[in-house]
TrEMBL record:
<dbReference type="GO" id="GO:0006635">
    <property type="term" value="P:fatty acid beta-oxidation"/>
</dbReference>
<dbReference type="GO" id="GO:0016507">
    <property type="term" value="C:mitochondrial fatty acid beta-oxidation multienzyme complex"/>
</dbReference>
<dbReference type="GO" id="GO:0016509">
    <property type="term" value="F:long-chain (3S)-3-hydroxyacyl-CoA dehydrogenase (NAD+) activity"/>
</dbReference>
<dbReference type="InterPro" id="IPR050136">
    <property type="entry name" value="FA_oxidation_alpha_subunit"/>
</dbReference>
<dbReference type="InterPro" id="IPR008927">
    <property type="entry name" value="6-PGluconate_DH-like_C_sf"/>
</dbReference>
<protein>
    <submittedName>
        <fullName>Uncharacterized protein</fullName>
    </submittedName>
</protein>
<dbReference type="GO" id="GO:0004300">
    <property type="term" value="F:enoyl-CoA hydratase activity"/>
</dbReference>
<dbReference type="InterPro" id="IPR013328">
    <property type="entry name" value="6PGD_dom2"/>
</dbReference>
Length: 77
C-alpha cells in the first residue's frame, strides 16, 4: 500500500506529508517513503515476503519495490 502512494502523489514529499497528517504515520519516522529509505527497501521486501508467506498475497511487494531493491535505489536519492 505504501509503495502505491507514489502513483497518487506528484512528489514523494506529498506522500510523506499526507501519510503523517492524514493517516497518522509516526512523524518521527519522516513518512513512509523516508522510512523505507532509512530502513532499507530490501529489508522492507524481506518483511513483506514473510508476511505474504504467512498471510497471503495482500502483502505481496509491488514490482516497483522489487526493482528498486534489485537496483539498490531509494525514493530520496
Amino acid at each position: 500500500m505504501l509503495a502505491n502512494l507514489i502513483v497518487v502523489f506528484n512528489k514523494k514529499t506529498d506522500g510523506d506529508i499526507g501519510a503523517v497528517f492524514g493517516l497518522g504515520f509516526p512523524p518521527m519516522k519522516g513518512g513512509p517513503f523516508h522510512f523505507m529509505d532509512t530502513y532499507g527497501i530490501s529489508n522492507i521486501l524481506d518483511v513483506m515476503n514473510n508476511f505474504q508467506s504467512e498471510y497471503g498475497n495482500r502483502f505481496a511487494p509491488t514490482q516497483l519495490l522489487i526493482n528498486m531493491a534489485s537496483e539498490n535505489k531509494k525514493f530520496y536519492s
